[in-house]
Recover the amino acids of this structure.
């Protein structure tokens, strides 16, 4: 069983599933990294597995609390969030990565700007 990946809308689905559109918008290196990260997600059983894979997956805070990011190329990040709302949490308030097995692709963004 692998992580279930879905999109917030059909426009996003069409964009993220088209390497041509991603390349046009964000360049070939980001398109290549995105494909690798989506392949990793598709092969993992839960978000906990992602901690040990390339790209530096991290849980976000503040206005992005409840979301994860992974590095692509340059400052660009892929943002995902758990489908279950509220998301599974640990007693300390952090996300329970091992309990998250379905996500939405939210966006590709450089949120450091």
């Amino acid at each position: 069983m692998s992580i279930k990946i879905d999109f917030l809308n059909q426009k996003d689905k069409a964009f993220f599933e088209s390497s041509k559109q991603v390349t046009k918008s964000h360049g070939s290196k980001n398109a290549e990294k995105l494909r690798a990260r989506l392949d990793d997600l598709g092969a993992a059983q839960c978000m906990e597995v992602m901690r040990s894979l390339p790209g530096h997956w991290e849980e976000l805070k503040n206005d992005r609390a409840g979301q994860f990011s992974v590095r692509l190329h340059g400052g660009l990040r892929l943002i995902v969030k758990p489908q279950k709302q509220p998301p599974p949490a640990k007693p300390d308030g952090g996300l329970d990565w091992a309990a998250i097995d379905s996500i939405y692709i939210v966006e590709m963004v450089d949120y450091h700007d």
The domain at 4-109 is CATH 3.30.2310.20 (YaeB-like fold). The longest helix spans residues 28-43. Helices lie at 10-16, 19-26, 28-43, 47-50.
